[in-house]
Specification:
Two copies of one chain form a homodimer. By secondary structure, chain A is an alpha+beta fold. Helices cover 21% and strands 32% of the residues of chain A. Chain A has two domains: 91 residues, 2-Layer Sandwich (D-amino Acid Aminotransferase, Chain A, domain 1), CATH 3.30.470.10; 156 residues, D-amino Acid Aminotransferase, Chain A, domain 2 (Alpha-Beta Barrel). Chains A, B: It catalyses: 4-amino-4-deoxychorismate = 4-aminobenzoate + pyruvate + H(+).
């Protein structure tokens, strides 16, 4: 399969000047599509990039599914042009996409995962917070902190020590029976599963210092492609174990989230 | 001239996972080449990207010059591969380059420029500060704040209100006869002209709250391609004039910097 290409002067390559989406396709149909479209539009508007038309966006997933589940990755860049950082007068955004077969890590749904607290702290930039833009070096550096396959994800705090997200997932926790996720107004990516869970009233936004992580009743990492992984072990970046949680026989949060994604209850 | 291309899965496009250099070529030879190489290496090392070999880097400028001055743009990405943000086990970096004819804005050397204080504040991220990585959305957003051709550059402060840089240049100021430039340990790009000026003892690092800008004796913006522009007018982001400086008959700082770049004294 030939990949789409972008030229040297594309601003997505030059400056990370664009946004992307990673969408679960079930039998060729996008899951949580309206949430992905909403975030893509929000990102384009924030950056002043014209939003590709609905037909072009829909065309990225129309076609025959090769496997029951696929991942569709979409990239929208501002295109070429402009002098240096200056914006082109008549931007011609590029929309690129690719579909790849996908199998979720179901063992992680059932057995839970070990996560690690990353050393890197996310910087604050309200102008870019929440959107899924192409400037992802912080995530790359954080993910580069560990190699062990035993560690499923890394938790990220901001410069003030507040929990923000995992490197490619959002974070959720339970306290006094209620489920929360970090506010993402200063940094972090607002996932579409997170958006849907908030909209349904299942989750609410809150702040949590990472120092309080061991006091939580339960902890999960989740996104719209992989679903929900219960955290059973938290290690700090030195590898020292900080906390463990027992695996619950019935995980209502996971069931509710997986219903949104079309994953059958375990 | 056909441009080099990168595939969809190149990490430079996907995440801004790479670095770049913008180099002045004079009669086909790179100016401040050792400083550009040093910064490129520093950037690759910080990101854990293997540094391209010297021969490959030199090959980007070897060839016949079409015009007396050109700009060489180099991009080094981590290449393709890795699962999501996870680093590829055996990274195969991509080195891309392009040369374009260049004519400096000499009127700005002689007549000075108007700069504007940008609304956007740079976020702190010490892990990425100083290097010229491909995550440049802050610069793009800042440069997008104005369209008027009368404004040559935008000054950027950090979240604490300290002066950092201009959107594509470094900033220098004079106080009590001495010349300073902002420390770049929390954000900003350390320019090669700035590096050379510090190494030569012409400039030293300091901090400056933007509120103190009107009290400076003199102010300049500069980079290794355009040279040094004396600032004669500073406007705030609402367009209100904050300060003016007279144009000096002899600008020793500009003369010293232009000597490093091979630009004749005015």
């Amino acid at each position: 399969m030939t990949q789409p290409q972008v030229p040297f002067d594309d601003r997505g390559l030059a400056y990370g000047d664009g946004v992307f989406e990673t969408v679960l396709l079930r039998e060729g149909k996008p899951v949580l599509w309206s949430y992905h479209l909403a975030r893509l539009r929000r990102g384009c508007q924030r950056l002043g990039i014209p939003v590709p038309c609905q037909e072009a966006l829909d065309a990225t997933w129309q076609g025959i599914a090769e496997t029951p589940l696929e991942v569709l990755k979409l990239i929208v860049t501002r295109g070429s042009g402009g002098r240096g950082y200056a914006l082109p007068e008549s931007p011609m955004p590029r929309l690129l996409s690719r579909r790849t077969p996908f199998v979720p890590a179901t063992a992680r749904w059932q057995k839970g995962v070990t996560v690690r607290l990353c050393r890197l702290r996310l910087g604050h930039q309200p102008a870019l917070a929440g959107i899924k833009h192409l400037n992802r070096l912080e995530n790359v550096l954080a993910r580069g902190e560990w190699q062990s396959a035993d560690i499923a994800e890394g938790l990220l705090a901001d410069m003030h020590g507040e929990l923000v997200e995992a490197t490619s997932m959002n974070v959720f926790w339970q306290r006094q029976g209620r489920i929360y996720t970090p506010r993402l107004d200063k940094c972090g990516v607002a996932g579409t599963l997170r958006d849907a869970l908030i909209e349904q009233g299942i989750v609410r936004e809150a702040t949590l210092p990472v120092a309080a992580l061991p006091t939580l009743e339960r902890l999960w990492v989740a996104n719209s492609v992989q679903g929900v992984w219960p955290v059973i072990t938290l290690v700090c970046h030195t590898g020292t174990q900080k906390q463990t949680w027992p695996l619950e026989p019935v995980d209502d949060f996971q069931v509710a989230a997986h219903r949104l994604l079309g994953y059958a209850a375990q």
